[in-house]
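Check these lines:
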Amino acid sequence: MKAARARGHLEFHLLVLVTLALVAFGLVMVYSASSGRAAVANGDPAYYLKRQGLYALIGLVALAVLSRVRFPALRPLAAPFLVTAFGLLVAVLVVGTSVNGARRWLPLGVIDFQPSELAKLALAVWLAAFLARRPAPQTLGELFRPIGLVVLAACALIVVEPDLGTAIALVLMACAVLVVAGTPVRVLAGAASVLVALGLAAIWLEPYRRERLFSFMDPWADPEGAGFQTVQAMIALGSGGLFGVGLGESVQKINYLPEATTDMIFAVVGEELGLVGAAAVVGAFAVFGWAGFSVALKCRDPFGKLLATGITALVAGQALVNLAAVLGLAPLTGIPLPFVSYGGTSLIVGLAAVGILLNIAVNHAAVEPVRVPDRRRRNGRARPARARGGGRAAPARRAGHVRRRPAG
């Protein structure tokens, strides 16, 4: 047990250090991006910092607790967790708070709860539990029932809010889990073509999404309209130079850059800390992704392997989507930067997910691999199944070799 824990210490420490560093950095940047607006609107420059600090404290408590709960205990909770998440996704469409035309939050006093954030983690746990006891889908039909149906239902409810960015992050997570589970790339490519068609339809049917797509193709065609946010982000990033204009000295965050504390906080980072600061943030998420996927590769338990993959893909995938949008490499989707952007539910759920990942890192070798029978048959005989989690199937016996029973 001690040797197994020692092998996971590097990834464990990297995940802890990177996560805490990003949270602390996020508190600094939230204060920098919001202090002026908070002083005018609330009379307290630290208004948003105090709230984000409270969310961080709750999230760190969740991280500490879940890092001590052995991850196999989550498997029987997968289905109830998923049903609860779906119930909340439906509830937010009925009684949720509408902000800027989006109905994504349930008011719970000190925090506006965002069910889509919980749904991402719930789906990751359910996918890992489902695929840990069944062979990976090998055809589009097997993929659709029930995995594709569940993922599409969750994405549909999230897109209706509307929140296309979260739906994209959820699909990226599901694809990563399926790849590790053993689904052929050709099957995933076929499913991806269907999802792209559905995504384009969702964009075309919603006027503001069409505007975002056209503004992404040429933001300078309408710099004061549909392309305003992208253009201001480019100006902020370009103004930072190599070392930035200085912490707290951003000009774009003052009535120029929309959503400076949430979706566009990376643009403020680029302006105030320059290329060096922006590269450090990108490097931090790269290290997180490497450590998380290393934990998944080392884990011998199928459920832990798939769950570590899903959690890592959620954090790294969401960061990738956000950074690509801010840098003008993808259309704007309205998705926050994990651990850095202002937002209670995103921060709390994200830190709770990291707690689960830390537990897998510590116990990655403590659970024996589970062999899952393959449903496919050839010539009337079941094909030998490979052990998940890095094990190998037992070698076939040589012709004529008979195992003798022990005497007595």
In short: Residues 368-408 have pLDDT under 50 and may be disordered. The chain is about 65% helix and 5% strand. The two ends are 36 Å apart (CA to CA).
